[in-house]
Hints:
Elements: H1 2-17, E1 22-31, E2 36-44, E3 53-59, E4 62-69, E5 72-73, E6 78-79, E7 86-92, E8 101-109, E9 124-126, E10 129-132, E11 141-142, E12 157-164, E13 170-173, E14 182-191, E15 196-199, E16 203-205, E17 209-212, H2 216-237, E18 245-249, E19 259-262, E20 265-268, H3 278-286, H4 301-319, H5 323-341, H6 368-386, H7 388-402, H8 408-418, H9 423-434
Helix pairs in contact: 1-7, 2-3, 3-4, 4-6, 6-7, 6-9, 7-8
The protein binds zinc ion.
Amino acid sequence: xxxxxxxxxxxxxxxxxxxxxxxxxxxxxxxxxxxxxxxxxxxxxxxxxxxxxxxxxxxxxxxxxxxxxxxxxxxxxxxxxxxxxxxxxxxxxxxxxxxxxxxxxxxxxxxxxxxxxxxxxxxxxxxxxxxxxxxxxxxxxxxxxxxxxxxxxxxxxxxxxxxxxxxxxxxxxxxxxxxxxxxxxxxxxxxxxxxxxxxxxxxxxxxxxxxxxxxxxxxxxxxxxxxxxxxxxxxxxxxxxxxxxxxxxxxxxxxxxxxxxxxxxxxxxxxxxxxxxxxxxxxxxxxxxxxxxxxxxxxxxxxxxxxxxxxxxxxxxxxxxxxxxxxxxxxxxxxxxxxxxxxxxxxxxxxxxxxxxxxxxxxxxxxxxxxxxxxxxxxxxxxxxxxxxxxxxxxxxxxxxxxxxxxxxxxxxxxxxxxxxxxxxxxxxxxxxxxxxxxxxxxxxxxx
Length: 448
Ligand SMILES: [Zn+2]
């Protein structure tokens, strides 16, 4: 058992340190009375650059006034391409002058988000609190792989950011403690998730977490849940969550949206947060593993990110007597099954169509219902067939193999073989859970 655990930790170490990190120096000034953000960024420590062009992505609220290449001002070239709320800035590379430093200065006006659909990639202003996640590109993201969607591009940075908001009660950047109005936030540890929260909010500290914008009573109850989840996941994975969780309640106008994670932040965007939402919290906490420690760039990206996080969440819920939540999910699956029969009739039902994982060619072939509902049950299916000890062995080996960039389904097959599952068993698993959605195979979850 101990040997297995140390192999596991070595793999995790390899995955984290394999990332290369850039350096980000920033000065950000927020003027709440004018809905204005001034930004100044200096990027350094570039390695492995492309031969011709360096591409940076920034949120489209920003109007960039100055762009400098190794201290020299250069013309600004931007385009939208597949950017939703962003622009891509193309910077030609001079072969005789390798990039040492890029300087960007500009400003942007945010709008109150009340009238529009909110999502993680938005720079959002609501109830006097400004929220910007890494996906919003409030700081420049280096778009390296131009075949990928820039919305999902991430850059690993060590950072040093000064944030000034004279009318704010508190400001916060990244995994730090909030500071009154103005402060400097740094991280020596490379990270690709830098969240900004500035405005009128309070915060409290407990053993396992920081709580932003929550009442005392709710804080105490959520703290209990979070501690119990951390303990469960540590035992399940053999990997300890060392960082303090930061739980922020930043209500959104998007009523169907529960929230998101930018580790170690869990951002709850519901109108009225409550402790009954264990499904949401346990899913978001599981992203510490699936998203931070284990990441896949394969075509089954959404399966390896969301379905695995949901699978961990189901494991927690089943173990802690929340069978009702799973029952509800399973009845949803029944409805999905029916919608699938008719998915060829109407384009609106196409989101329910089932694309077997082995036939997935691009990320978006895995629809939302597959990512969150079907995928987690498929993983419970594998566990039912191979046992929980083998499942524990499978996860680190699977994610290690995924870095080799094969088709995600072939890797799943190969990894099962590697941990000693017989070929016959693997074919049975594929037939029962992966070739089509047959609910009769899920009776082991004991849901009538
Ligand atoms: Zn998720």
